[in-house]
UniProtKB/TrEMBL annotation:
InterPro entries xrefs: AB_hydrolase_1, AB_hydrolase_fold, Sec-Metab_Biosynth_Hydrolase
Protein name listed in UniProt: AB hydrolase-1 domain-containing protein
Pfam families reported in the protein's UniProt record: Abhydrolase_6
Domain AB hydrolase-1, chain residue ranges per copy: 9-251
Length: 272
């Protein structure tokens, strides 16, 4: 049974992908006994998908996980590792007004956000409106799902060809509605204004890892996300990796992401 005293990490995966794509990262995270790891599957990523499944359904999955984790220990520290579409899901899941799943015990205190090549977007925007992907790269199916025409190049560029082919076989349909649904909460703003419990300055709770060779969410778009939230006064630490959108079969990329997690742990300890 997971220890209530350890920090918890929730990995929120991206669209068209399942936890299988993240296995090398998850395996590396699991080897560290400093925290407990949670890897929920988002409902919009299924083959076939339900045509009514959207962002709120995915956020409800994460919201439930947050409530369960905090039920025993409301002060338990939590890190959200959010990739791609998962950035919108994680933000929405933290909305205090999110309906149907109840409040998160302990509220938003001691929750830390790590976006990697993820949508860090303002309220009223959807993933589709925050970055309009060229339509020729996606096929809209009759069942309401979207599927990339060339997922190997879109997600797995930079990996060896044989590895890329293996990863492409793990791709699933993603409900188009989830990309169109707007975010109603800015978790990065609530957690990233650099305030401590008594309002003191300098508290770091938001990280963004830019994937520089990303073909799905280009580097320029990722940096625009960071610049936009910084203009709002948000304290965010930015770092970069020269990798594609889903580089989790790259040992160097996994090690670099683990280093970011270690940095978050150090910040948590400093704020304890």
């Amino acid at each position: 049974m997971p220890s209530a005293s350890k920090p918890a990490i929730i990995v929120i995966h991206g669209a068209w992908q399942t936890v299988l794509v993240y296995y090398p990262l998850l395996e590396a995270l699991s080897a560290n006994d400093h925290y407990d790891l949670y890897i929920p599957h988002l409902r919009s990523c299924n083959s076939p998908p339900s045509p009514t499944t959207g962002l709120a359904d995915d956020a409800a999955v994460i919201r439930t996980e947050l409530i369960v984790i905090r039920r025993v220990d409301p002060s338990r520290k939590i890190i959200l590792l959010m990739h791609s579409y998962g950035g919108a899901v994680g933000s929405e899941a933290l909305n205090p007004n999110f309906g149907g799943r109840g409040e998160i015990p302990g509220g938003l205190e001691d929750i830390y956000l790590v976006y990697f090549a993820a949508f860090m977007i303002p309220r009223g925007f959807s993933c589709a409106s925050a970055y309009v992907d060229p339509s020729y790269r996606m096929t809209l199916l009759e069942d309401g799902a979207m599927i990339p025409k060339d997922p190997g190049d879109l997600f797995f560029n930079g990996l060896p060809e044989d590895v890329r082919e293996q990863e492409v076989r793990k791709i699933v349909k993603h409900n188009a509605r989830a990309m169109m649904d707007c975010v109603n909460f800015e978790a990065w703003r609530e957690l990233g204004l650099g305030k401590g419990p008594q309002g003191e300055e300098g508290r770091l709770r938001v990280w963004y890892v830019v994937f520089e060779d990303d073909h799905a969410i280009p580097e320029s778009v990722q940096r625009r996300f960071v610049q936009a939230v910084r203009r709002e006064g948000v304290l965010v630490r930015e770092t970069s990796l020269k990798v594609g959108h889903s580089p989790f079969r790259d040992e160097g990329a996994v090690k670099a992401l683990l280093a970011v997690v270690s940095e978050v742990e150090e910040e948590m300890e400093a704020m304890s």
